[in-house]
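Lecture notes, continued. The same structure-token format from the folding unit now serves as the input rather than the output. Read the line below as a description of shape only.
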């Protein structure tokens, strides 16, 4: 039996899949802006620093591709 949280997540995914592409993009951008604002508020950063922090986190643990290593020398 799925939990209440599982059911709510499934319902939200279904609603998001039903969005037209333009609205889906607007939602994605809005959520990204909210994440940056939230991090900036919690850490006492300005918006630009918060966006850089999120970008750094995204790169953490990723392996560079072989072509990028070749370009770096």
């Amino acid at each position: 039996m799925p939990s209440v949280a599982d059911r709510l997540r499934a319902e939200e995914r279904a609603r998001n899949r039903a969005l037209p592409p333009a609205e889906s993009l607007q939602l994605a951008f809005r959520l990204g802006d909210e994440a940056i604002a939230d991090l900036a508020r919690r850490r006492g950063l300005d918006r630009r620093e918060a966006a850089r922090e999120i970008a750094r986190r995204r790169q953490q643990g990723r392996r560079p591709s072989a072509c990028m290593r070749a370009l770096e020398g």
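Point for the exam: Helices lie at 4-17, 21-43, 47-59, 66-72.
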